Each structure stands twice: as structure tokens, then as C-alpha cells.
Fold this sequence. Notes:
Layout: E1 2-8, H1 16-31, E2 34-40, H2 46-57, H3 63-70, H4 72-87, E3 92-95, E4 102-104, E5 113-116, H5 119-126, E6 130-134, E7 137-139, E8 145-147, H6 152-164, E9 168-173, E10 194-196, H7 197-205, H8 213-222, E11 226-230, E12 238-241, E13 254-270, H9 275-285, E14 290-295, E15 302-310, H10 314-328, E16 332-345, H11 355-365, E17 372-376, E18 379-385, H12 389-399
Parallel strand pairs: 1-2, 1-9, 2-6, 3-6, 9-11, 10-12
Antiparallel strand pairs: 4-5, 7-8, 11-12, 13-15, 13-16, 14-15, 16-18, 17-18
Helix pairs in contact: 1-4, 6-8, 7-8, 9-10, 11-12
Amino acid sequence: MAIVVQKFGGTSVATADLIRRAAGRAIRAKQAGNNVAVVVSARGRTTDELLDLAYEITDRPNPRELDQLVSTGEQISIALVAMAIHAAGHGAISFTGGQVGLVTEPVHTKARIRRVNAQRIHDEFAKGNIVIVAGFQGVDANQNITTLGRGGSDTTAVALAAALEADACEIYTDVDGVFTADPRLVPTARKLDEITYDEMLELASLGAGVMHSRAVEFGKKYHIPIHVRSSLTENPGTMIVEEVSRMEAITVRGAALVRDLAKVTIRDVPDQPGVAARIFHAIAASNVVVDDIIQNVSHEGAADVSFTVAKEELAAAMDTTRKIAGELGAAGVVADDKISKVSVVGIGMRSHTGVAERMFKALADAGVNIQMISTSEIKISCIIDRASADKALRVTHDAFDLGAADKT
């Protein structure tokens, strides 16, 4: 029998009716002759509400206990979905991430998956059951509950699809698929029929919230086609695949915005070999994920080093950076927690010129100042003031005619 993995996000299981709708999709896939595994997120705003509870107690919650707390949201969802399938007269069983052998590294709040033991799921398939698995969570080698970071249920689903050698991985959400930009911010944004892993990976890491970037990494590594589609309609969504038609003909595939970033700058760092390595070794050891890095031109044997982090990681980044700055004899550390990043992504950038100029001109014409620039082979990103974020996304999207109906 073919194996299908379905993932339902929090908005897709927010109410009893939506839970029954999700259960119905799983049942229909089973009746079509498939073995079905369903990955479920916490309902609605449950994770946010649990985080709010934690921060009512302390502004620096212990990471292990935070994982213990927020992982309960998915456990509620899996039990309710299983009950809905039972009520419809079909067999189902729910499991936490740990119960199905999803083992992660020993890091809390943003763990990476090390391995998945799919045997227990296969055993339940043999009994005719639909298997419901809690997304976003696993256990480390010592059975401590860990979580995969926000959006981690996508990663759970694609990792399970890889472990099960599934024939399909369907990501159900509250939008129709992957758009050229967030349609809530850019009214002219258009749904894409298909997009490459590389483009989706960049867009996901740059703020396109429809897919988690590590889920796309799994899909690319294990060659798993991912279908992103709406849980509210039967319309086809967006296929994430290795290659798409006219791949290099389209310069830019989409635009994305990361709204809540912070910038840390170390003033007058000694301009000597090994200094940058010491700085970022210390930051990595504190489990802070750095985004963009820039070092200014040296002056009188010193330079400024700036980097960006997610806003919620600023406190940890500043603690570590102040310490290492003191050890290096730097002049000091300053932070700006009111920045955003706007980006454009497209495989076609490899073979087209003038993309950066076109983006920079659009921002300049809109009066948006660029603070930092970073590039890769298929993306260009600009750090900007957060107050200009929405405008920057719209003008960048329009500059590349991404809403045009004849683009694919």
C-alpha cells in the first residue's frame, strides 16, 4: 500500500468542526487504499497562550521546562483528532513524538532531528489504524522532551515521510499554497503552482511562514515532493519539487519579509586574525542563531562587527557578546531591536543581471533606507527599519512584476 503523510497546522484544527474536517481528509485517504500518518500542530493560538503563561512567571524561562510546557498543545490536538476518527467509525491511534521514536539532539526550544524509528507506525498500519503524531516535538537520548522551534510540525511531517518512504507529503494550512509574497501584506500576491526546493528553502528562511525551512531541507535531501494546500478547499496547492518548468527563465520567484529582527554591533573590535572566529564561537556555544554578518572597513587597527538575530534571541546574544567584547578589548556593544529584512528569491538570478539594482532602486524610490545587504546565488536581502517593512515588501514585489498573471 502507498503511504501518505498529512500535516494539519494549528488553524486547521482550531475548532471542533475543523478537527472533524481534518479527520475526514485522513479517512478519505485511507479509504483510497493508502496507509495514512497525520501530523498535527497545537490548536489555534495554544502555543502562544502557553508561552504567555511562561512569561507571566519569568522573563527568562528555563528552556527544558518551556519545552515541557509548550509540547502539551500538540498532545491535545492528536487526542482530539484520533477521537474524531473513532467517532466516524474508523481506527486511529495517537502518539507523541517520543512515542514514535523521534529522537533529537539535546537542545531545547530549537532541537534538530537526529533519527526517526518508524517501526511503531508500521506496526499500527498493519492493524489498519490511521496514526496521529504530535508535531513540533521529540525526545533526546535521555528522554527529555524537546521541541523543534516554531513551525516545527512541518519538519516532523517531512521527516516522518522520509522515514516511512512515503509516496506523498501533504501540508494542509489556511492558505491555498505558496504565494509570491504574503497575501495579507501584498494584495497582488499570486499563488505559485510549483516552486523548487532551493527557492522554497530561501523563502522559508527569509520569512515566508507557509513552510518551515528545515522541513524543506528534509524534502530536498530525501527527494520528497511536498504539496502545500488549503485544508478548507479541494483546490490544488503548490508543489515543492526538484525542478520546475522554465526554471531559469523567471528571474525572481517571490519576495519575503522577516519582521522581527535585532542587530548587534560590537564597536572597535581588534582587526586581527581569529577575532571573528572567537566572537561567533562564543555565540554558537550559547545556541543563538545568527542571520546576517557584516564587518566594516578597518580603521586604525579596529573594525565594527554587526550581526542580526531573531528579536527574541537578543537578550541571550547581548549577554554573550558583552562578555566576549570585554575579553577582546572592544569599545562596547550596541543593539537595535527595531529592524526587519526584505528579500527576493529566484533560481533565475543565476543567469540574469541587474536584479540588485532593480531592488535597490525600488526601495530608494519608496524612501526606504538600506542598513545592511546580504546575497547568495539565488537571493538578495536588505536590512531596513521595521517601520518601513510592509511598504518595502510591497514595492519590492511590484518591482519584479510578481503579481503578473502570466508568470509561473
